Amino acid sequence: MIQPGLYHILLLSTGLFFIGIYGFLTRRNLITMLMSVELILNSVNINFIAFNKFLFAHKLDGMFFTIFNITIAAAEAAVAIAIIINLYRNYNSVDVNDANKLKY
Amino acid sequence: MNASTIIFFILSAAILGGGLMAVTSRKIFRSAIYLLFSLSGIAGLYFYLDYEFIAAVQVVVYVGGIVVLIIFSIFLTHDVDGVLPKPTISAKLLAAISCISGMLLAGMLLMQNPFLASTEKPIQAGVADIGRQMLSTTKFGYILPFELVSILLLASMIGCIVIALKTRTKS
């Protein structure tokens, strides 16, 4: 019977990445777009961990990249939510099509 | 089929199914809960691969932090019973075509690639080893990115306060 290996995990993270891309392209709501970005970042973390586990098991570098990724993703989510709440306060909406004041 | 394979496929089903429902569900609160399932499945995958520290960080930061933050912002900005507008057919179609073609391309490339594993002896890293290498100033230490990330976190914290406290401008 098949044993899950590197290829299975890479296919899983590819699927998750493109699910995130699909959500980012179809959603027009800022909070759901942020959720899609989180899925994309998580698929990248899975890749780092899988490569570290199956190819470079004598090192820890993939683990450090994952830790820094998670930290930066947390900072990014906090700033994004602050911007979304400020946008809602000013425009009463979180739709990307309503946030067009810089355009004109 | 042994237990480890079954666990892996259950975890993959949770990750992919949760992700797919999170990006397609039209109720925003349910979407956040599906995202929670997906992120917990990823934490389970890290446990499955024996990276307990990363799994714990994933649970603390993503499941406990970011999803809670997202749910708070949903409560602040949305009517929870409301339904999100449907994306147009053309947007859905274009996004699906680009995603499926990208997925096929990436899948084909990685199935053709022979990944060569290193032959050195694997190490079992405990939290002490991780901490020692992260704060080491020698060749493979990560002290510089560590300090940079601390500055980034401080900057983003101040930035959040500045942005969120801004009063409404008089037009």
What structural keywords apply?
heterodimer, A: 104 residues, mainly alpha, Helix Hairpins, elongated, B: 171 residues, Four Helix Bundle (Hemerythrin (Met), subunit A), 2 domains, 6 helices, 72% helix
Describe this structure in words.
The complex is a heterodimer of chains A (104) and B (171). Chain A has 104 residues and is mostly helical. Chain A has helices spanning 6-26, 30-54, 61-91. Chain A has a single domain (6-92), classed as Helix Hairpins. Chain A has three helices and no strands. The longest helix of chain A has 31 residues, at 61-91. In chain A, 49% of the residues are buried. Chain B is 72% helix and 0% strand. The radius of gyration of chain B is 21 Å and the shape is extended. Chains A and B meet through α1, α2 and α3 of A and α1, α2, α3, α4 and α5 of B.
| Oligomer classification | heterodimer
The H-and-E topology of chain A, N to C, reads as HHH
Q: What is the straight-line distance between the termini of chain A?
A: 61 Å
Helical element count of chain A? 3
CATH class of chain A: Mainly Alpha
Number of domains of chain A: 1
